[in-house]
Design brief:
The complex is a heterodimer of chains A (about 300) and B (about 260).
Chain A (H helix, E strand, L loop, with lengths): L5 H4 L4 H11 L7 H4 L16 H5 L30 E4 L5 E9 L4 H10 L4 H5 L6 E5 L2 H8 L13 E7 L4 E8 L2 H4 L13 E11 L9 E12 L2 E10 L1 E4 L2 E4 L9 H29 L6
Antiparallel strand pairs in A: 1-2, 2-8, 3-4, 4-5, 5-6, 6-7, 7-8, 9-10
Chain B lengths: L2 E7 L7 H18 L6 E12 L15 E7 L2 H8 L6 H5 L10 E10 L21 E7 L7 H18 L1 H6 L2 E7 L7 H6 L10 E7 L5 H12 L12 E11 L8
Antiparallel strand pairs in B: 1-3, 1-4, 2-3, 2-8, 4-6, 5-7, 5-8, 6-7
Helix pairs in contact in B: 4-7
The chains are: A alpha+beta (about 300), B alpha+beta (about 260).
Chain lengths: ~300, ~260
Amino acid sequence: MNAVIREQAVQLDYRDWQASTRRKADRPALTPEEAARPFAKYYHEDIPAPDPAHLALMDQPCDPQLAIGPERMNDLLAPGELDVEIGWCNLANGAGFIANRMIYPDITPAMVDWWFAWHPLEDLRYRIWYPPQHGGIMVSPEGRRRLLDPLVPMHEKNWGVVHHVTENCNCGMENIDIHFVSPREFGFDMTRWREPHVSTFAGGFGWAVAVDRTDESITAPALMCHIFRRHPRGLEHRTRFWMGYRLSQGRPELTLPPGVAVPAPAVQGLARHNVCEFTRWGQFLPRIYQEFGGRMLC
Amino acid sequence: MPIKLMAASRRRPGLTRAEYQRYIEFYHGTIARQERLKIRSYVQNHVTDGAFGTLADETHRQVADRDAVVELQFDSFRDMLETLEPATPSAASQDGRFFADERHNVIVMAEEEDVAVAAPLPTFNPGLGIVRGVGALKVLHYIMRADEVYREDYYTLWRDAHDYALQRAPYAREQLRRCVMNRRCQANDNDAAARKHFKMVDPPVYDLVAAHWYDTQEHAGAFRQYEEALRSYPRPFADWSKSFYLYTRQVVIIRDTPGGPA
């Protein structure tokens, strides 16, 4: 009989996972089991600083008139650029808007699909992505079964899977339930879903609440979109967040109470975090893919 | 996108069930019609019977008393907030204390998902067959998620268990006219103001309320058969001692779409 593989042995039930997040939020030293994992070396690497000029674009809010709401997500399938490719602001309805663009010379769509399916299987896989702010990750037993199912294509593995991440987006450690969905379920026009306009996608909707939640804590929704297309200099990654929106029956819906806006520090914090974590990602994904890419078990 | 608020309450001390149900139908219901705000539909489910926990429990592990469940449906989350928290407090929001034991309310903000049934029409007298999926007995099944089960798996498991149970409950399979999953929306986590308003103390959280329609009140046995089969599903997903079901009679207070589903 096969020994229990590490990718399954780390499974916690919901109650135990919730209890564990307080400890994960402190980003403890690696356990002996984690330190022995073949990818643990990435945890100890120096983390590259983002391009200062790029990060500076997140210093001040952009013009909300130039930003788009989620009902215009299909604009991302048009050739060329949108008015805001890097920036953040509050929209007129109070929602938070974030746009970011990265260009990766050494990343392919296959690497992206593999990464988003591979990393949720263990805390350490998530922590090596951005050690300063990533505390841990968990998926449910049914989610894990899907991720490990060899019959599910790599780019579809996350569809319907919830990543329960513990992460600091510059406003304190939060537990975020990220419900990954297919591009169709996210709301994209699939008649326009083709090369060269889009190469791959990872996204869905999330609910975030402080790890140290109290009775008064707000559980905040957001839509998350990572869409990729080929670019003369490699692969172009365009991120959009719409904070304050949830996905309801395949359509975005604003869930802010009247007169309420997503706090600007939360929008800016996530924008800056996004620049930092994907700077790191662009630097280490090609290398880790070279070692482990294409398979789920290590 | 439609969202609804389901509030299960019990009568305030000193009222009989009949007095309570008369009050909510004729007083509270009338106030809601007069002061509709952005309510899309409003249905009261008057409890006729029900059961809390299981026969294996030596004593109750929950408030074992519910007299009605009201369902307020809205076109959007924003409409719901504007109705429930208007700039000037509504009369309806102040009326609850006259009939309900408010601190023991159980509130679920939910989105509906219809589950297909084998026989949405009775076979013996289906009429023109235009109206399907209605019945005079509506069962509301509040199923407490087991603490160790992830919410996303819980819904998958319930759905699987539901099919499993109907396979083993032929009377229910034949008589069930409509079934709706009411899935709790995570926005419900932000109900601190409501809890404070109602002085609710650590209210239980139900991630799912399944609604079942049968032809008449006499078909309660069909649900009973189904519920026992559901609990025999081999994979754990629910805390049955904290779950309950209510047999109810539906009273429509506001609904503008005659011919629509029940």
